[in-house]
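User: Hello! My lab partner asked me to get a predicted holo structure for this protein. The small molecule is fe (ii) ion, SMILES included with the sequence. Please write out the structure tokens.
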Amino acid sequence: MILEFMRDDHRSCDHLYTDAEAALLAKEVQKAQEAFEAFAQATLHHFDMEEKELFLTFEKRTGMMGGPTQMMRYEHQQLRSLIESMRLALRENRHSDFFGIGESMMIMLQQHNMKEEQMLYPMIDRTLGDDGALMVQTLQDMAR
Ligand SMILES: [Fe+2]
Ligand SMILES: [Fe+2]
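Assistant: Hello! Below are the structure tokens for the protein in complex with fe (ii) ion.
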């Protein structure tokens, strides 16, 4: 339940990133900037959904504070900083920097997402049980 919802959100972030990259490769800078902002906003919102609701609830229910959620929060911080560097590179027309940082960011993001999909979300689904539907609703209602 959580797994499906959050995995779909990972996929839609990926699409936005692909759009940004494709636009920049086609030298459509304005379009690339818009697509990248959409990617950044969607990804940061996704991290917020996890940190402010999903992980918090999981930590409260299990009492597991220093485990996988802590590692995921730490990786979010690294990803946020890479996304910010990409935003600056794009704004300053440093396109090769943008692609370079983008490559590292995407590798880290894909590994991060895989850990969540293969390990953490299934754990959260087992922990929440029937309350999973309510959690999905809460996440959907979070303002972007
Ligand atoms: Fe995450
Ligand atoms: Fe995630």
